[in-house]
Specification:
303 residues; mainly alpha; N-utilizing Substance Protein B Homolog, Chain A; 67% helix
Length: 303
């Protein structure tokens, strides 16, 4: 959707560069995932450094000399820090920005140390792997992910990452939930695409939405006769073209799935009334296709 929205050329033009941009944007989601894992690793390192410096104080108290090491001994954080395959990928892709931007690590560690989730966790001297994992997940959800300064940092680093952040956060937490003490190193390095078909779908939807833009716009125009084309939000037009493309060119995608997907996207990215408008146009389109026998969907329950 973002790539189609940014597309400025005509249907007949060579849009190879835009396809490259699309694939790079998708790859960028994986980079963001690695950046966030690198952040967890750096927070863990910073916490350990902090304990060591506290112990070395000349006038250290008894508590400072014998600190509670539960956080730095957290089994999940240690698995991340000691995962050679993960750290090698982060290094090779030059995605550990936190060495230079260490102040954000400091900000987040301070926020963690002040949080209820941290204090509740530290109040018990011993924990299991399960409890360690639950703490890391809660820490990420309640302290790290909602942090405004981190949000601003990510937006400044790469503008497309802000739109990717919710889905990356969701998948990062899903991967952490499935983590086990004996998980292989590759567990933390999942494939970006489930299979090659996913990647091909993204490229195909992009290309077919572009190549049929005029046809789709004519259809949209006929179903929005009471609307001046200038009044239709540009993003709404892009979503309608993509939905029509799925109706016509992707027989295995259920109609309801297409409609629900674009309504959710509209609620997230477009105007307050966009989802109602898009729903109306798509509903009218489906009824027309059904009456004219144009809705050629394969398989049960795809209508």
């Amino acid at each position: 959707m973002q790539t189609l929205y940014a597309f400025k050329r005509n249907e007949g033009d060579d849009f190879k560069a835009d396809k490259t941009f699309l694939l790079k944007s998708l790859d960028g989601m994986y980079d963001l995932y690695l950046v966030l894992l690198a952040l967890l690793i750096e927070i863990h390192k910073k916490a350990e450094d902090r304990l060591e410096k506290t112990q070395q104080k000349i006038l250290a108290t008894s508590e400072e000399k014998n600190p509670n090491r539960k956080f730095v001994n957290n089994e999940v954080l240690k698995l991340l820090s000691e995962n050679k395959a993960l750290n090698d990928v982060i290094t090779s892709k030059k995605l550990n920005f936190w060495d230079l931007d260490f102040e954000y690590v400091d900000i987040l560690l301070k926020a963690i140390l002040k949080s209820d989730v941290y204090n509740n966790y530290m109040s018990k001297k011993v924990s299991s792997f399960k409890e360690d994992k639950e703490f890391v997940i809660d820490m990420y959800k309640e302290v790290i992910a909602p942090n405004d300064k981190l949000y601003d940092y990510i937006e400044d680093k790469k503008i497309t990452w802000i739109d990717d952040l919710p889905i990356v956060n969701t998948n990062l937490l899903k991967i952490l939930r499935k983590l086990k003490p004996n998980s292989k190193e590759q567990h933390l390095l999942p494939k970006l695409y489930k299979d090659n078909e996913d990647k091909e779908f993204a490229v195909e939807l992009f290309q077919k939405s572009l190549l049929n833009k005029s046809t789709f716009d004519d259809e949209i125009g006929k179903k929005t006769t009471n609307w001046d084309s200038d009044r239709i939000a540009s993003l709404d037009a892009v979503m309608l073209r993509m939905a029509l493309c799925e109706f016509q060119k992707f027989p295995s995608i259920p109609v309801k799935v297409t409609i629900n997907e674009y309504l959710e996207i509209a609620k997230e990215y477009s105007t307050p009334k966009s989802s109602i408008f898009i729903n109306g146009v798509l509903d009218k389109t489906v009824k027309e296709y059904q009456s004219e026998g144009k809705l050629n969907k394969i398989g049960r329950g795809l209508m």
